[in-house]
Amino acid sequence: MSRRDELASNxxxxxxxxxxxxxxxxxxxxxxxxxxxxxxxxxGVKDFGENRNEEGLTKxxxxxxxxxxxxxxxxxKLRDIAGWADVVHSLDTASHIAKLATVTxxxxxxxxxxxxxxxxxxxxxxxxxxxxxADIAQxxxxxxxxxxxCVPPVAADPRRAFTEIAAAHRRFISKYxxxxxxSAGMSGDFEIAIDCGATHIRVGSxxxxxxTTR
Length: 214
Ligand SMILES: *Cc1c(COP(=O)(O)O)cnc(C)c1O
What we know:
Blueprint: H1 3-17, E1 24-28, H2 34-42, E2 47-50, H3 53-62, E3 66-69, H4 78-84, E4 87-91, H5 94-103, E5 108-114, H6 130-138, E6 143-150, H7 158-175, E7 181-184, H8 190-195, E8 200-203, H9 205-208
Parallel strand pairs: 1-2, 1-8, 2-3, 3-4, 4-5, 5-6, 6-7
Helix pairs in contact: 3-4, 5-6
The structure holds pyridoxal-5'-phosphate.
Pyridoxal-5'-phosphate (PLP) is lined by residues 28, 30, 51, 70, 151, 186-188, 202-206.
């Protein structure tokens, strides 16, 4: 099978499992070459996600799409990220949001990363810390607070975790009514995430194959 056939068949299989047509599929192309991104773009994929600035920078220069950044954020990379990304999913630090607002020259959609258990190694803030971050985003003309992003704790039961995430998101929307998006769900759990209310799913290995790193 050619790589094109393989990607086409994997993509179709994932799309068939997305029962809600309103859900945005972000294909996470991290570690895979730009040739794969080009094929997927030709197959109709409009949204791509990357975890590293350098990879996003080079791939986005070659493929016109809506580019998402969902990796760990380093302050000194924010200006670069704001240059190529259209959407940033992994914001969890007040100073990063404030800096992003000053370095971006175009409107950016942002998601605040929620952590259910506060595990610092996985990123995100606990629910009670979200408003302080949201208020910084709201004060910026360039940042549009799209919603929340969350990766469930490693050992969590996915349905329970996504149900909790969705409840936290509903409470968040009651204070920030425009923040209606919920970025949750990856290859292993996206159907459950959609069931629980995810509007954006980030899928890599189900489409591109399993990665040896990251
Ligand atoms: C790598 C990654 C994904 C995609 O994961 P798969 O399991 O390959 O679908 C989604 N979200 C984040 C934050 C990631 O780091």
